[in-house]
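Field log, afternoon session.

UNIT: design team B
ACTIVITY: writing a sequence onto a fixed backbone
BACKBONE:
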């Protein structure tokens, strides 16, 4: 599992480097907001909203090849199903750390 599966992303976008860079730039710009929204929904203990937000991030992560983040979002969905707020908080920390790793990889691609 990769922080950013560049090969899969390039293949998905038919080797269009301009499109890859545009998609990754938008992903990098939007992801902090999406994580903040997830955190807010966990704090509010609104399981339906946490599930929707986790699913949204999971899909976006899958689209850009952010495999570890996608896996963390699947774990978040499972924690929601189990109403496990302790696990949700733990996962949120891992997600925030993963964002840092993703940011480094994306910035390398955008150079």
């Amino acid at each position: 599992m990769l922080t950013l599966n560049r090969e899969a992303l390039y293949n998905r976008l038919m080797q269009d480097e301009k499109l890859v860079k545009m998609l990754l730039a938008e992903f990098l710009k939007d992801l902090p907001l999406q994580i903040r929204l997830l955190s807010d929904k966990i704090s509010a203990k609104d399981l339906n909203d946490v599930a929707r937000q986790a699913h949204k991030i999971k899909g976006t992560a899958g689209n850009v090849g952010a495999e570890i983040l996608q896996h963390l979002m699947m774990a978040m969905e499972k924690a929601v199903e189990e109403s496990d707020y302790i696990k949700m908080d733990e996962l949120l920390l891992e997600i925030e750390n993963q964002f840092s790793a993703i940011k480094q990889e994306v910035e390398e691609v955008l150079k």
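LOG NOTE: The chain is about 85% helix and 0% strand.
NEXT ACTIVITY: expression trials, pending approval
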